Amino acid sequence: MNSILKWDGHTHTAFCPHGTSAELGLYLDRAVQLGFTRYTVSEHSPLPKHWMKNEQLQRELAMEASELPAYFDYVKNYKNRYEGVLEIWTGMEIDYLPGKPQYSLELAEQCHHEVEDWVVSLHFLPGKDGMRCIDYTPQDFEEGLIAYYGSMEKVVDEYYNELEQGVALAAKLPGSRRLGHVNLIEKFHKALPPIDPDQIRKRLDGLLPKLAEAGVGIDVNTAGLRVPTCGQPYVPGWFIGRCLEMGIPLVFGSDAHRPEHVGEGWNYYEESIASFRSARP
């Protein structure tokens, strides 16, 4: 059986306003301790000015554009310090912004000499009073999105409609690129009206050929396991199997926002791949 590259491909730093002030070295030491050999630092990309009506919340979501040079220098410093110990990739979690994809493309063009690895994520949907953050709080989701669209089913469909556009955006980025936490829409599923699993399966099935054609991979994001209102990974096991069948690249992502998160959920990723391989003739 082929070994699995032990790579945590979705992690954050002190540049994330909703993370911690912990030094990157603490994250990296944890990765080395757990036996990881590759590690992507993928901080949230800056957002357009006045992207959300709630500007205080917007300031809590991502670094400012003026911080980008310091971020790249910060990661570069640790790349040099850990050379020969841990392969560190400079990455970015860049948003697909509904109605404003050009902003992200222009940002990527500015940063492409620095960024080796892209995670393209969807965190926002149009809603009541403008853009709403889908993973902020259950109450905000209900008031800003369900009330706006009229049902959970319609919110879920809008989410996947925009996520499909995110694949098209990712296809235009240079180097390594993948779609972040494809089922982030389920973050609050235990606290909100139920989501039809058949709807999720249908939309994920529809995503597969688009990913394969675009050469875009999947962030097997396990952060949902540590969210009380979720309790499950953001990528289901059956979807991992279909990606493997279709040659769609997979990279584990802890989505660490503090050092102790690094590597959390790796067993799920490893066991899902092993289960797929053992079922093959």
List the helices and strands and how they pair.
Blueprint: E1 7-8, H1 24-33, E2 38-44, H2 55-59, H3 68-81, E3 87-95, H4 101-111, E4 117-121, E5 124-127, E6 130-133, H5 138-149, H6 152-171, E7 176-179, H7 197-214, E8 217-221, H8 237-246, E9 250-253, H9 266-279
Parallel strand pairs: 1-2, 2-3, 3-4, 4-7, 7-8, 8-9
Antiparallel strand pairs: 5-6
Describe the structure concisely for a colleague.
By secondary structure, the chain is α/β, with parallel strands linked by helices. Helix content is 41%, strand content 16%.
> Assembly state here?
single chain
Mean pLDDT: 97
What composes the largest sheet? 7 strands, parallel
The CATH homology group name: Metal-dependent hydrolases
Q: How does this structure look, described?
A:
With 281 residues, the chain is an alpha/beta fold. The chain has one domain: TIM Barrel (Alpha-Beta Barrel). It has nine helices and nine strands. The chain has helices at 24-33, 55-59, 68-81, 101-111, 138-149, 152-171, 197-214, 237-246, 266-279, and strands at residues 7-8, 38-44, 87-95, 117-121, 124-127, 130-133, 176-179, 217-221, 250-253. The strands form two sheets. A seven-stranded parallel sheet has the order 1-2-3-4-7-8-9. Strands 5-6 form a two-stranded antiparallel sheet. A hairpin with a 2-residue loop joins strand 5 and strand 6 (130-133). Helix 8 (237-246) packs across helix 9. The longest helix is centred in the middle third of the chain and has 20 residues, at 152-171. The chain starts with 6 loop residues before the first strand and ends with a helix.
